[in-house]
Every structure is written in structure tokens, then in C-alpha cells.
Amino acid sequence: MATIKLEIVSPDKVVYSADIDMLIVRSTDGELGILPHHAPLVTGLVPHAMRVKMEGTEKLVAVGGGFMEVQPEKISVLASVAELPEDIDADRAP
């Protein structure tokens, strides 16, 4: 099965980088599913938990808004805030 490279970057660091099967995100225009070889796209993102599907599993990545650029072989997410669930500090979160 084909995969697509996903890179999620916040101002502080690269939060996530891997080859994935599918990404489900909530854009400013609604929910989108991105598969390998998707048509080029640029969209804004609203705060939500992105769903990363890879090898039959699903991983969540929290984003606090930002932008996403999709090319046929790569997805780039530039998030104002992004964290993996295991990195979220409940005492620090608003």
C-alpha cells in the first residue's frame, strides 16, 4: 500500500514525522481525509485532534490551529501549538 510523508511542526519543534496511510483533519472548511497522491491543497486548521492512520492503528495529535499544505507525496502541517497525547501536561493546559 502507498504511504505519504507527514510532518507536523510547531514553533518549538518537529512534533511528528512519519510515513502514514491516511490523515483526517478538521480544516476551516470542514473535515478532510488525506490519502497518498492527494491533489495539492493549502488550508487553515482549527483546534482539534488530528487522526493519523498507519498500519492498521490510529494515533491522535492535538493541534491548536495552523495551516496544512498537501502535495501528492507529502503533508506539511504548520501548527501554532501541537502535541502528542503523551506529551500533554494537564497542569500546563488552559
Describe it for me?
It is a peripheral membrane protein. It comes from Anaerovibrio lipolyticus DSM 3074. The protein is an all-beta fold. The protein has one domain: F0F1 ATP synthase delta/epsilon subunit, N-terminal (ATP Synthase, domain 1), CATH 2.60.15. The protein contains no helices and 10 strands. The protein has strands spanning 4-9, 14-20, 22-27, 30-34, 41-45, 48-54, 57-63, 66-71, 74-79, 82-83. The strands form 2 sheets. Strands 2-1-9-8-5 form a 5-stranded mixed β-sheet, with no helix packed on it. It has a 5-stranded antiparallel β-sheet with strand order 4-3-6-7-10, with no helix packed on it. It is globular and about 40 Å long.
Question: How would you sum up this structure in a few lines?
Answer:
The protein has strands at 4-9, 14-20, 22-27, 30-34, 41-45, 48-54, 57-63, 66-71, 74-79, 82-83.
